[in-house]
Known about the structure:
Elements (H helix, E strand, L loop, with lengths): L3 E6 L4 H12 L4 E8 L3 H10 L4 E4 L5 H8 L5 E4 L1 H7 L7 E4 L7 H9 L3 E4 L2 H17 L4 E3 L2 H10 L9 E6 L9 H4 L4 H4 L9 H9 L1 H14 L6 E5 L5 E6 L5 E5 L4 H10 L13 H4 L14 H11 L3 H17 L5 H13 L9 H27 L1
Parallel strand pairs: 1-2, 1-5, 2-3, 3-4, 5-6, 6-7, 8-9
Antiparallel strand pairs: 8-10, 10-11
Helix pairs in contact: 1-12, 2-3, 4-5, 5-6, 6-11, 6-15, 10-15, 11-14, 15-16, 15-17, 16-17
The structure holds magnesium ion (MG).
The site of magnesium ion has 4 residues, from helix 7.
Amino acid sequence: MEKRRIAILGSTGSIGRQALDVISQHRDLFEVELLTANNSSELLIRQAIEFDANAVVICNEEKYSEVAEALEPHYIKTFAGMQSVCDLVTSDNIDIVLTSMVGFSGLASTVDAVKAGKTIALANKETLVAAGKIVMGLAEKHNARILPVDSEHSAIFQCLMGSAGAPIEKIHLTASGGPFRTWKREDIAKATRAQALNHPNWSMGSKITIDSATMMNKGLEIIEARWLFGTPGEKIQVVIHTESLIHSMIEYADGSVIAQMGHPDMREAIQFAFSYPFRLSLDNRKLNFAELGNLSFFAPDKEKFPALSLTYEALEKGGNMPCIMNAANEAAVAAFLREEIGFYDITDIVGECMAGADFAADPSLDEIFETNELTLARAAELIRKTAGRRSL
Ligand code: MG
């Protein structure tokens, strides 16, 4: 395998840090070209020096001089602002762009990387949720390969290897069920921020951990799978698998099911996106089947987790509806993390935004950005009302 030059968008987050760990295990095969971060200037500086990055972007412009002064003696170029991320991802020195920033904010730079024909290691699922049709269309046009980093989608992608193009009959998308799987609905309604952040199997950033607790993460993944694999929603089924050892499965027309397994460790999916189609060694925990005992599977409880029904509804409507769902969710999760609203207020607000939104059946990229802004404003209004009611 030839050496690959990598840009990590969001290098100080959970996925970004794990990606650097993967790179540190294969310094002869991977080279860090570009690192970007929103605010975490200190960690960004340390990472840039350790991995001898060519350039960094600190999105928060107020931190530019701090980063630039620290990196100048190391001959590492420093840039500031989101636009710099969009400009730099198109650089000729970059082979793979890992999109590990949080939420809709990742869309603009992903689109630019796709247009430049880069290989995208996609960790930012919101990009495909908000603008899946547009991004996949651009990827085809510009010959940009999109490799999934989400563990479920990496699993599906791996299950498809060697299928000789046989159509997917069904995707079995596995879900841990999150921290509230066994809780009663009335108890979930009172769940606190700390309880929702306490994920049983995966260690992740706070936004995705709350999404896992509401199961909106699985909803976003259904839409992500729809675009990555061209599989309609009715063929994507969620199954709770509490051990998180099967990362997802594909069923073919003959009933044969192919599963991909491993201990829950994001580095596996990250590394495979970096090394595809090759497999490299990884210092991780290997499966010991004799010690595993049983694996369990359940149907998800749609009453306790309304996010799943909202997702299928958004997929069926299509157009800008998944973008509306995603924007409302981002705003509501942020409000829940600020402890302004309750747990079920998150999905209530998403549902209200979807019901009252301006629907566009075939939105342009500009209209997607506009939908996002309008929905954030609408959600902010609903959050204010809900927070006001709660404080009475
Ligand atoms: Mg996932």
